[in-house]
Amino acid sequence: MSSAANQARKDAIRDNVLRPSRNVPYPSKDGKPIYTSEFFGESVFGLAQIAKALPKPAYAQFLRKMRGGQALDKSTADAIAHAVRIWAMDKGATHFTHWFQPQTGTTAEKHDAFLTLKTTHGQAGLEEVKAIDAFSGTQLLQAEPDASSFPSGGMRTTFEARGYTVWDTTSPMFVQHGPHKTTVLYIPSIFISYNGDALDEKTVLLRSTEQVAKAALAVLALLEPVPQGVPPQTSIVYTTLGTEQEYFLVDRALYVLRPDLKITGRTLVGALPAKHQQMEDHYFGHIPSRVLATMSEAELELYKLGVPIKTRHNEVAPQQFELAPIFEETSLAVDHNLLTMDVLSKIAHRNNLKVLFHEKPFKGVNGSGKHCNWSLSTGSGENLLDPSIKPETNYRFLLFLLATLDAVQRHGGLLRAGIASASNEHRLGANEAPPAIISVFLGEHLSEVLDSIEQSRPVKNFSVPDIRTIKLGGTALDVMVSTLPDISRDLTDRNRTSPFAFTGNKFEFRAVGSKQSPSFPMTLLNAAVASSLQDIAEELRKAAGDKAFPSDADKLKVIRQYIASTKSVRFEGDNYSDEWKKEAAKRGLLNITNCPDAFDQIVEEKNSAMLCKLGIFSKSELSSRHYILMERYSKDLLLEANTLRTLLAQQILPAAFEYRAALASSCAQQQAIKLSAGPELKTLNQTTPLVERLQEWIDKLDDAINQVHLAAHDPSAEARASARHLLPAMEGAREVADELEEIIADKYFPLPKMSELLWF
């Protein structure tokens, strides 16, 4: 068995070397390349297309609907549906789908054909059936997928199957081309139950963005007074998001020979190769040709879909890469991130590669995150988290900054719950990713600004030329390169160890996992900030007293109050250090080291009361989320444990047995002709104890799996049992298996090794 598997491994390695890259031509016209901006969004049915399809009054009504100000009438919906059908069919579409985000960590879709049958009565009373293409406003607005087989956390039973997908008018429709030149119209949607409960990730995200917008506008109304009857200066606020997506690429032929990668997304066994990331030569290095071909083709598809991909580069670990888009409105950015993951997977498949979005697919090298860069913007494009030249007198900026600090201070446990998963658990807290303690990095300059305001003293001068620029054109020692220009220096250095860092005019939530949808973490962040903004608005009103609007002195009073109350969540040092863990405990910051404890923060009274008060979740929706997260965690770990057990029993142990037999036979042959069998005996004596230990660990794995099954029917107990029993059993078994891998002769080993997966 192992020899056949080993041959398959060798064949995959050979094919990997010989396989040519795909050649996908860049769009051109008359032999000249077309600028990206000319075909960007060509597969999207956006506002420009809707404006062409509708009369001006109907289009104005649609815009009011997008902003939540008016219902969409049937005639307008029918007009949009007709226009988008013609547009999509002209691009080859035969089907449409309501594309939604169930609580499975991915997206879902059910395709329906535009084709329908129309029965007419002909002459002599005969019925005639005619095939036509049709798409109504009712079909556009909603559909009914079966809700019984999606996670509901007990809100629905199997026999209560009805659920609804509803068009999210804030996210544009688009077409995607599939195999055999098939094309489908995608309608971004929310997913709710028969009773209106949120069964998805997007409904609650939209609720949270609406609440943070209302709260922000309430604060701005106090800060930007206008005469009665005059429209406010700012009438729209929305959150923005940019998601830096990290991922690994491996050869698909090698991937299919790894059951653990196929089933769980990560290698459950595998010794670290001699060379991995320790040479620090992969980060920002030359992009391998097959990878660049995949990246370029994926970007080409994404540009057509209106996804503004900006950056691509090698990441720290071998075969790890990153792409990052331009910032967009949060719910659209989430849609685009999920679309990016889907397109990357499809394009990689065409290039005989496999994308791994798991946070820790390979033990011993860096894992992957999805750094979520979050901010607040007005309808006119002003960034509310832009410090400006003098942040110490920019009271608007300071209040929005402090609202965010207050949100993290009061609901850090909730934010920790938003990033918790069985896969991200392998990454958080390691010296490669933010720790489980949620704190905020502001940097030297902003920290000095807040300290100076709190202490009623002048702020240190951070704007003198020697500080704001780096001179490369010559120094007193005349050792610099005179031909190079002076460059601007940022006011603050970066802190990559911080889970929530201010980076100029936004916060970077670095702790989000690469496999996660950004929806849930951003929902919780939006909610926490909305709650803090509401409190700040109330404090401003109190400070103003009988006055219609707070004075600068009133604003400063509130600012000082929040600087003092949020001081404990600010940390500028090394978040990886043991000293920080001790210091964080003194400050009262939570250090939640496992997923079940993190999930409990969702239903903790302080957090649940805030989420329900804002209307982002109902009590039943929160309970169901808690149930689903616990259940998914234990399912993930059980899946890994059972996969590992099968892998050890059916591949690793048989390979070890075959190698032992070969060694024993060699020993006997050497002894029969009076030669020393010392070298063979030494290796045999190393192998045998490891084989025995591995068998013992398989038994321990069985016991651990049984312990989890004893807690069945109680997701919380099952999740805790999984963390307590499965994780140490899997780690112990892996250590022995990896030791065996380094001893067993290569020709007997059936699985592609990390050296082959990471260096193709």
From TrEMBL:
It holds the Pfam family GSIII_N. PANTHER family: GLUTAMINE SYNTHETASE, TYPE-3 GLUTAMINE SYNTHETASE. Belongs to the glutamine synthetase family. GO terms for biological process: glutamine biosynthetic process. Residues 94-196 form the GS beta-grasp domain. GO terms for molecular function: glutamine synthetase activity. This is Glutamine synthetase. Residues 8-17 have a biased composition (Basic and acidic residues). Residues 201-652 form the GS catalytic domain. It comes from the Eukaryota. It comes from Linnemannia schmuckeri. PROSITE patterns: GLNA_ATP (PS00181), GS_BETA_GRASP (PS51986), GS_CATALYTIC (PS51987). Residues 1-25 are annotated as: Disordered.
